[in-house]
Each structure stands twice: as C-alpha cells, then as structure tokens.
Specification:
The protein is an alpha/beta fold and 309 residues long. It is built from 9 helices and 13 strands. The model has no long low-confidence stretch (mean pLDDT 94).
C-alpha cells in the first residue's frame, strides 16, 4: 500500500512512519517548519520511504501513480509555533486540506484528518464529547489554529457529501513522548527541559487548569485503527480520559527528574482552556481503543529521551 503522510517529519507523523513502514511504502511530506529531518533520518536509505520537502498549500510533486491512504497531519500544533505566523497556519489548515482532499479524490484514496481538541475551545461541557460544538473565540490569538482546524473538518465533510471522498476525522488531545521538540511550548516538554536544566518550572495561572496526556504509542495506535475502520468516519476523540492538574504535573516531573527546580507562577495566556479532557466512549466502543500507558511510565520514557538530547 502507498501511504502519504503530511507532517511526516513531525512528532506524531514520524512515529506513524515508524509503525506503518513495516508493511507499506511511505511518502513523507514536510516543509520542516516544525518537523525535523532527524526524526526520519533512519528511514532515508529505506527503499520503502520517500521524503518530499514541501508545503501542502502548494502542489506536491508525486511520482506514484496511486496513493491508497493519506494521513493529513501537516500544521504547527503548539501555540508558540502556530501563532508565529498565524496566516500560514490558516492557509495550511484550509488551502492545504483542500489540496489533500483533491489528491484523495484524484487517487480514490482514503484520507484521515488530524483534527484537535482545540476545536472545543475553552469548553463549557466536561468531559468533551464529539457532539459538543465548542466555545471558541474566533478573533483571538489562538483562532488561526482553532478555527483553521474547525474549517478543515468542515471541508472534510463537504468533500464527503459532495464528492463521496472516503474520509476519517480524529480529534487529538494532548500527546507526549520521545521526539517532542524542547522549544515547542507544550507543557510536558517545557516542564521536562526546565526541570533537567534546574530552571524554575513555569506554571501559568494557579495551576488548577487541567489537561489529559496520551502517550505517543497509544495515540498512533488509535489513529491507525481509525484509518482502517470501515463503518465510522468520525469525528472521534483520541486522548487519555485521566484528567491531570497542571500544578500536579509540574510536581510529578520535578520528582521524576530529581530536580531542584522551583515552581514559578505567571499570568494565564488569553483563551487558555481551563479544563480539557476527552470522552472516549466512542473510541472504546467502535475502535476497541483506549490508552494503555500510564502517565508515570510515559513521562519516564520522555524524560529519558530528553536526557539523551
């Protein structure tokens, strides 16, 4: 099978390459804005792997006559990166998604859109079900990503209704593990690098806001299961339903790293969600999926990765 993975040199994308290359030919597309060549370096001499440095908002030069599946993961996923060039973020989510849908239509390929828990905004429903329409500030600094991803979902379903494109949509909640970038502004990588460096751990607000953290191997398993699900197109939540306070996470990472770091409190960023936790009832029922890696075990693996880096 020929599988195209956009954002394939990124954190989640490169782990997807790891899992899928064993039985498939992989075409990895990434503009390396946030993806890293090091994440896919071990594939570059593999005859089943093709790397194209390209931007999905522009035509992608494919040599393959047939693409069977497309995983569309291309887009900066951390606030630091997606706010750096908000217009490019919107273009990636809208123009890029249109291009990938057109490619899927041309090749009669199945396409999976990596959406996000950010479509729920600062949720007024808890935990968040797929039926919840969200509470999003569409003029705020996070809107380029939040609304971009919401529009990408709209495009997926419009192509499904109008052109019968074979779509799948997953909403990814906080994911962590090896190959996270240390400067991506995400809470797990921030806390671990600060703790290992002996710097103050930066907690925004009073730390009572919550997130749920899914280890990368569990997330990749859920994404692949959804791609190969025949009767469900989504959207479907993928994440860990265990809710964790940010302050508790900071203390846990200090303990696991044996760090002498202290906790420094700063003001909460605009539109930062107060609570974030998925209802994964649908994933359990339809995919037979739920996370298997506990937070402590996942953090130990991630800390080990950052120590080596």
């Amino acid at each position: 099978m020929n599988i195209l993975i956009t954002g394939g040199a990124g954190f989640i994308g490169s782990h997807l390459c790891d899992r899928l290359i064993k039985e498939n030919k992989i075409i990895c597309v990434d503009n390396l804005l946030t993806g890293k060549r090091n994440n896919i370096r071990h594939f570059l001499n593999n005859s089943n792997f093709t790397f194209i440095e390209g931007d999905i908002t522009k035509p992608i030069p494919l040599k393959e006559k047939k693409v069977d599946q497309i995983y569309n993961l291309a887009c900066p996923a951390s606030p630091v990166h997606y706010q750096l060039n908000a217009i490019e973020t919107i273009k990636t989510n809208i123009l890029g998604t249109i291009n990938m849908l057109e490619l899927a239509k041309k090749h009669n390929a199945r396409i999976l859109q990596a959406s996000t828990s950010e479509v729920y905004g600062d949720p007024l429903e808890h935990p968040q079900k797929e039926s919840y329409f969200g509470n999003v500030n569409f003029t705020g600094p996070r809107a380029c990503y939040d609304e971009g991803k919401r529009c990408a979902e709209t495009l997926m379903f419009d192509y499904y209704r109008q052109y019968k494109v074979d779509i799948r949509v997953v909403r990814i909640f906080n994911t962590y593990g090896p190959r996270m970038a240390k400067n991506d502004g995400r809470v797990v990588s921030n806390f671990i690098t600060q703790a290992l460096d002996g710097r103050d751990i930066t907690v925004y607000g009073d730390g009572s806001q919550t997130r749920s953290f899914c280890y990368i191997s569990d997330m990749v398993d859920g994404i692949i299961r959804m791609m190969n699900q025949e009767k469900l197109i989504g959207p479907i939540n993928l994440g860990n339903p265990e809710e964790v306070k940010i302050l508790e996470l900071a203390k846990k990472i200090i303990s696991l790293t044996n760090s002498k770091s202290k906790i420094l409190f700063k003001g909460l960023p605009k539109d930062d969600p107060k609570r974030r936790c998925p209802d994964i009832s649908l994933a359990r029922k339809k995919l037979g999926w739920e996370p298997l890696i506990g937070l402590d075990d996942g953090l130990k693996e991630t800390i080990s990765y950052f120590r080596k880096k």
